[in-house]
UniProtKB/TrEMBL annotation:
Bias type Low complexity, positions: 17-31, 38-50
Organism in which the protein naturally occurs: Escallonia herrerae
Parent sequence residues shown: 1 to 407 of 957
Record-annotated Kinesin motor domain positions: 57-399
Binding positions (ATP): G142, Q143, T144, G145, T146, G147, K148, T149
Disordered: region residues: 1-50
Organism domain of life: Eukaryota
Subunit annotation: Interacts (via C-terminus) with NEK5.
Family: Belongs to the TRAFAC class myosin-kinesin ATPase superfamily. Kinesin family. Ungrouped subfamily.
Name of the featured protein: Kinesin-like protein
Localization terms from the record: Cytoplasm, Cytoskeleton
Length: 407
């Protein structure tokens, strides 16, 4: 195995060997060089090079938020709690002035990374898969205030370079479908205290989840579904959803950081007589014969802005706050448990433990492609939260999803 230059002082934690990307080498999460031979592997990986062609593990990027004005002033004398080495895809978490732990991710996005770059490395490969008929999920995990909503949900009305992943994903989808034969259906939901609320119709505040026992597909029959034909109406939908989210949270006397926001985009494509727009590899059937009956290809993109991960530790609170902390604890730790079970190839993945994991069931299972972005802040005061976020991301890097086209 090749020794890479710049071997790090202190512990280097790399949990798994890197293998080539499952689907398309053109994506940003593509094949990576082998790790240096001095790295410590704390867990063996099940994903070897041989099965890389049929499987894709969860891709994990870490993004550092720039210091805000308060941090610039208050922490001026202190170094950031992390040091990023994007070219090595490494992050060093400082333990003290002279020692740090080093972690590797699929992408390491510094405080200078543009929204465009973040979209391209985190979400674009997932959107491409969804257009090809897979289920795809993009999740943001991290402490409140570290940039989850900035990364996913920014509209960029005044400054288009600020547009987040939701807006950019829809632009890409609209640019790549055929309006005559394809359809885009969108729902926007919030999960709070184990109740699913419709952000497009506040009267719908307890939507149930239905799972198809045969296919494992998840549906939400009570949720509002809006057909999208153009970017303008999607932006209106996001604005409406956000307004309802604020109103619902005001009514419940809570903040958005305590609920999970979930955008679902269903794409139905009739593939008759044309090839998949993104298909450059042998990963999809050849569809050019005019004698073939139309093939309906259904993809689902789910974008999840998770509740602030710090709530996990806030169980010291009382009354309603305690119930809320428990509920967030339940859903985020259920997500963590599913990620661990999948990472360890466990026969039992406890998807039924929370509504969040039930909703994401088909993101974990047979047909999914998933990207996780973990967001962190630079402040040394939040070092413990940052460490816990980094560890969550590291575990997720071991999760493997088998890929199948749903037709
Ligand atoms: P979260 O959703 O994780 O609670 P936000 O997305 O609301 O965090 O971000 C908190 C604050 O930090 C916001 O004012 C946001 O504009 C700012 N911010 C977050 N990420 C960045 C970034 N990469 N660049 C500049 N500002 C950012
Ligand atoms: Mg937020």
């Amino acid at each position: 195995m090749a020794q890479r230059n710049g071997a790090q002082r202190g512990a280097v934690k790399v949990d798994r060997p890197f293998s080539s990307s499952a689907l398309r080498p053109s994506s940003s999460f593509k094949s990576r060089p082998p790790p240096p031979s001095n790295v410590r592997r704390s867990c063996p990986s099940s994903l070897g090079a041989a099965d890389a062609s049929v499987s894709g593990r969860v891709r994990v990027a870490v993004r550092l938020r720039p210091r805000n004005t308060e941090e610039l002033a208050a922490d001026a004398d202190f170094a950031d709690c992390v040091e990023l080495q994007p070219e090595l895809k490494r992050l060093k978490l400082r333990k003290n002035n002279w020692d740090s732990d080093t972690y590797e991710f699929d992408e390491v996005l510094t405080e200078f990374a543009s929204q465009k770059r973040v979209y391209e490395v985190v979400a674009k490969p997932v959107v491409e898969s969804v257009l090809d008929g897979y289920n795809g999920t993009v999740m943001a995990y991290g402490q409140t205030g570290t940039g989850k909503t900035f990364t996913l949900g920014r509209l960029g009305d005044e400054d288009t370079s600020a547009r987040g992943i939701m807006v950019r994903a829809m632009e890409d989808i609209l640019a790549n479908i055929s309006p005559q034969t394809d359809s885009i259906l969108v729902s926007y939901l919030q999960l709070y205290m184990e109740a699913i609320q419709d952000l497009l119709n506040p009267a719908n505040d307890n939507i149930s989840i239905v799972e198809d026992p045969k296919t494992g597909d998840v549906s939400l029959p009570g949720a509002t579904v809006v057909e999208i034909h153009e970017q303008h109406s999607f932006m209106e939908l996001l604005r409406l959803g956000e307004a309802h989210r604020v109103a619902a949270n005001t009514k419940l006397n809570t903040e958005s950081s305590r609920s999970h926001a979930i955008l679902m985009v269903h794409i139905k494509r009739s593939m008759s007589g044309r090839e998949s727009d993104f298909s450059s590899e042998n990963d999809t059937p050849h569809l050019s014969s005019t004698f073939n009956p139309p093939i309906l290809r259904k993809g689902k993109l789910v974008i999840v802005d998770l509740a602030g991960s710090e709530r996990i530790h806030k169980s010291g609170s009382e009354g309603h706050m305690l119930e809320e902390a428990k509920s967030i604890n339940l859903s985020l730790s259920a997500l963590g448990k599913c990620i661990n079970a999948l990472a360890e190839n466990s026969a039992h993945v406890p998807v039924r433990d929370s509504k969040l994991t039930r909703l994401l069931r088909d993101s974990f299972g047979g047909t999914a492609r998933t990207s996780l972005i973990v967001t962190i802040g630079p402040s040394p005061r939040h070092r413990a939260e940052t460490a816990s976020t980094i560890l969550f991301g590291q575990r997720a890097m071991k999760v493997e999803n088998m890929l199948k086209i749903k037709e």
